[in-house]
Design goal:
Helix content is about 15%, strand content about 30%. By secondary structure, it is α+β, with helices and mostly antiparallel strands. Among the domains are: about 160 residues, no CATH class; about 80 residues, no CATH class. The strands form three sheets. Strands 1, 2, 9, 10, 11, 12, 13 and 16 form an eight-stranded antiparallel sheet that branches. Strands 3, 4, 5, 6, 7 and 8 form a six-stranded antiparallel sheet that branches. A two-stranded antiparallel sheet has the order 14-15. The radius of gyration is 29 Å and the shape is elongated.
């Protein structure tokens, strides 16, 4: 047999396989990494998760911030009828003037707070975002918009009517006609003022359902249902759930922020009326609607959540993270990138 015709020896094959093994190991280490370190793919995955968390937090927290700013919008202050609120009975004001904002300190998952906002426009239907004026003779103002009628209430929309008033005893009085505190937009004649000097305000409440309460209500809390697998143990999802006008139960929750370990609410109060914040509180459940309107100047909601997924190559420090003054121990989950989000608002609609 000539030299050109002979094959490879076993030693040559083994050497070639060994070289290929080394090359594949190097490529694998470069792309995937070894335990406790990050390869290119792992780093890409980490950064992608962090970027996704960042985008999700921007969207969810902006919804949350806007809702906080609307607390108290369209709420009646006087002439309050008997009404039925949430079937859960948590923070109900049934029969009394509704409180625009209130929370249960430590009433949620892992000591997180349970927050309730009340306003006409905190629901997620189209009608609740609309309002108009009502004058004598059942004359209602139509808004001129592009596209046409985008801000106008529809005939079947359920609404309430408010008389602005001029004194402390009749400011923002709910108008009741025929024993009813609500009606449809096309049936407001009985709710119209008697004189041309008076103008009343129509607030949308729901697209179709007759209201059980003269406002809308949204609950914000940590849910342990449908938590993404990438989230650390003992975390949840910050959700918004609207109380349904039909039966008082919570509607399907809207996820706002994933991988949340704690949500804490703090209220900055002016208790002596001098215009300066003097008393921060974490619990205002003892205050009624008028006291909350008069005293609450700022609201701070602090949320502890992590970005991305677990990273064995990262160790978070410190292990105790203050969340609105409440320390949260994250020592069992130090391989996550933790961050405190502070949402601070001045709830002007509480007093207007």
């Amino acid at each position: 047999m000539s030299r050109r015709e002979r094959g490879f020896t076993l030693v040559e094959v083994m050497i070639a396989l060994f070289v290929m093994f080394l090359a594949m190991t190097a490529v694998s280490t470069f792309l995937v990494g070894v335990k406790g370190s990050g390869g290119v793919l792992n780093l890409y995955k980490q950064q992608s998760r962090i970027a996704q968390s960042g985008m999700d937090s921007i969207i969810g927290l902006e919804i949350f911030r806007k809702d906080l700013e609307q607390a108290g919008y369209g709420l009646p202050w006087n002439n309050i009828p008997a009404y039925i609120e949430a079937t859960s009975m948590i923070l109900n004001d049934s029969g009394n003037a509704p409180r625009g904002i209130v929370s249960v300190d430590g009433g949620g998952v892992s000591g997180s707070d349970y927050l309730v906002l009340k306003a006409t426009n905190v629901a997620m239907n189209d009608a609740c975002r609309k309002w108009t004026t009502l004058e004598t003779g059942d004359v209602k103002r139509a808004w001129t918009t592009v596209p046409a009628n985008a801000e106008n209430l529809n005939a079947a929309d359920r609404v309430i009517v408010m008389a602005p008033g001029s004194t402390g005893t009749n400011w923002r009085s709910l108008v009741i006609a025929g024993g009813a505190f609500s009606t449809t937009y096309n049936n407001t004649a009985a709710f119209a003022p008697a004189t041309a000097a008076d103008t009343r305000i129509i607030y949308g409440i729901d697209d179709a359902t007759a209201p059980r309460m003269p406002f809308n209500r949204a609950d914000y809390y940590l849910s342990t249902a449908n938590v993404p697998q990438r989230c650390a143990p003992n975390t949840g999802v910050l959700v918004k759930a609207v109380v349904k006008q039909a039966d008082g139960d919570l509607d399907a929750p809207l996820p706002l922020l994933d991988c949340v370990a704690s949500m804490q609410v703090r209220y900055m109060l002016d208790t002596d009326g001098d215009g300066s914040v003097d008393t921060p509180l974490t619990d205002i459940t003892a205050l009624d609607a008028q006291q909350i309107r008069q005293q609450v100047r700022r609201v701070q909601v602090s949320i502890l959540a992590h970005e991305g997924q677990r990273d064995p190559g990262y160790t978070h420090s410190p292990t105790n993270i203050p969340v609105a003054g409440t320390p949260v121990d994250i020592s069992p989950n130090r391989n996550y990138r933790w961050k405190v989000y502070d949402v601070v608002v001045t709830p002007e609609n509480l007093r207007n």
